[in-house]
Amino acid sequence: MNYLKFSKSTSILYTKIHQTSIKTQLKCFYSSRREPFQSDSFLDIGTRQIYEEEHDIFRQMVRKFFKDEVKPNEDKWAKAGQVDRELWLKAGKLGLLGIDTPIELGGSGADFLMASIVMEEQAYANSSGPGFHVHSHIVMPYLARIGSPEQKAKYIPGMTSGKIIGSIAMSEPGAGSDLQGIRTNARKDGSDYVINGQKTFITNGFMCDVVITVAVMDPGAKSVAHGIGLFLVDADNPGLKKGKKLEKMGMKAQDTSELFYEDCRVPSSALLGKENNGFYYLMQELPQERLIISVVGVAHAEFMFEETRKYTVRHKLAEIKSEIAVARTFVDRCLLLHSQKKLDMTTAAIAKYWTTDMQNRVANQCVQLHGGWGYMLEYPICRAFVDARAQSLYGGTNEIMKELISRSIFP
Ligand SMILES: Cc1cc2nc3c(=O)[nH]c(=O)nc-3n(C[C@H](O)[C@H](O)[C@H](O)COP(=O)(O)OP(=O)(O)OC[C@H]3O[C@@H](n4cnc5c(N)ncnc54)[C@H](O)[C@@H]3O)c2cc1C
Question: Ranges for the Acyl-CoA dehydrogenase/oxidase C-terminal domain (predicted)?
Answer without folding.
Answer: 276-409
